[in-house]
Write a structure and sequence with these properties.
The chain is an alpha/beta fold. It has 2 domains: 165 residues, 3-Layer(aba) Sandwich (Peroxisomal Thiolase, Chain A, domain 1), CATH 3.40.47.10; 146 residues, Thiolase/Chalcone synthase (Peroxisomal Thiolase, Chain A, domain 1), CATH 3.40.47.10. Helix content is 32%, strand content 26%. Helix 4 links the parallel strand 4 and strand 5. Helix 3 packs across helix 4 and helix 7 packs across helix 8. The radius of gyration is 19 Å and the shape is globular. It binds oxa(dethia)-CoA. Oxa(dethia)-CoA binds next to helix 2, helix 6, helix 7 and strand 12.
Length: 319
């Protein structure tokens, strides 16, 4: 017993900032950002916390699934940008939707949604739940150094959610981690203790983009092939690949190396930028709401992120 996806939802804050807008306060331009990343615009929260965006995605997913909050047995949220250490984003969503169930956050950076889906699969396998709400939500704008053009043009805010029910549509998964706080680091709280002697770090996203890029292309290629094999599927069987939206060039490079036709790789990074753990469920929701998914489609998810974390999984679409 694993799960099936009953519904999807997503949300991005109203404020849209274009590449030209970014060029007003940092030394960049539309041409560089478009060519190097594919991003044309992104959404930034002006008033909403991560949990507010997670809530909006959650109620849309519940509506799409035709499931009431009281039917949800557990809520999991992938996030690296919770507004509080406690209560977690998942617990804030539990309160806002009026559910009565356990809830927790999971931190695995951009691979977070894949990690959280696999965690959810465990609860279904142990028959602890009948319905779950699984979310990826981020407000990365609060972690940005707005003077660092190499990162501030890339990361953005948003949330995506799925409602899961009992079923057999979760077919394969591979998770990985390679401890490295040099290539991508996102410091959190400053150690303001009387006794803590280490120097406080700047609380901003810090990334060696080139190195992450190479790692991402290699790992995504390897992981996609591995999970398809695990699911007894060929590359030709993959109806869609929904990669983490880190960089359009990464997606294109993966597509070139594998034999899955290029048009099956989904992307919307142009509109949203890199929303870390939210990017896969946002893309999935877009595909669902635009009626691009057919019953029986095989969808491959893959991601690489801070940690370094990696993950890929395969689901069958049965909605
Ligand atoms: O989601 C988490 C995982 N993260 C990723 O997967 C990110 C992976 N990496 C990437 O997507 C790319 O490496 C970036 C988009 C971050 C950077 O692209 P790049 O082609 O690797 O550029 P680069 O960092 O090698 O920089 C090339 C040049 C540099 O100038 P010089 O030294 O050649 O004169 C940068 O200073 O581009 C410059 N540059 C910019 N120029 C205009 C860097 N950022 C900008 C910018 N506007 N925003």
């Amino acid at each position: 017993m694993s799960f099936t996806i009953l519904g999807t939802g997503s949300y991005a804050p109203e404020k849209i900032v274009t590449n030209d807008d970014m060029a007003k306060f940092v030394d960049t331009n539309d041409e560089w950002i478009t060519e190097r990343t594919g991003i044309k615009q992104r959404h930034y929260s002006t008033t909403e916390h991560t949990s507010d965006m997670a809530y909006q995605a959650a109620i849309r997913a519940l509506e799409d699934a035709n499931v009431k909050p009281e039917e949800i047995d557990m809520i999991l949220c992938a996030t690296i940008t919770p507004e509080n250490a406690s209560p977690s984003v998942a617990i804030m969503v539990q309160k806002m939707i009026g559910a009565d169930c356990p809830a927790m956050d999971i931190s695995a950076a951009c691979s977070g949604f894949i990690y959280v889906l696999d965690t959810a699969a465990g609860f279904f396998a142990r028959k602890r739940v009948k319905k779950m709400l699984v979310i990826g939500a981020e407000r990365l704008s609060k972690m940005l150094n707005w003077e660092d053009r190499a990162t501030c043009v890339i990361f953005a805010d948003g949330a995506g959610a799925v409602v899961l029910g009992e079923g057999d549509d979760y077919l394969a998964c591979k998770l990985g981690a390679k401890g490295d706080d040099d290539i991508i680091k996102i410091p959190n709280h400053i150690g303001l203790s009387h006794y803590f002697e280490r120097e406080a770090e700047e609380p901003y996203i810090n990334m060696k983009g080139r190195e992450v890029y190479k790692y991402a292309v290699n790992h995504m290629c390897m992981d996609i092939q591995d999970v398809l094999e695990q699911a007894n599927l060929t590359q030709e069987d993959a109806s869609f690949v929904i990669p983490h939206q880190a960089n359009l060039r990464i997606i294109e490079a993966v597509a070139k190396k594998l034999s899955i036709p290029e048009e099956r790789y989904c992307h919307n990074i142009e509109k949203y930028g890199n929303t870390s753990s939210a990017s896969i469920p946002i893309m999935l929701d877009e595909m669902n709401k635009e009626n691009k998914l057919k019953k029986g489609d095989y969808i491959v998810f893959c991601a690489v992120g801070g940690g370094l974390t990696t993950g890929a999984s395969v689901i069958r679409w049965s909605k």
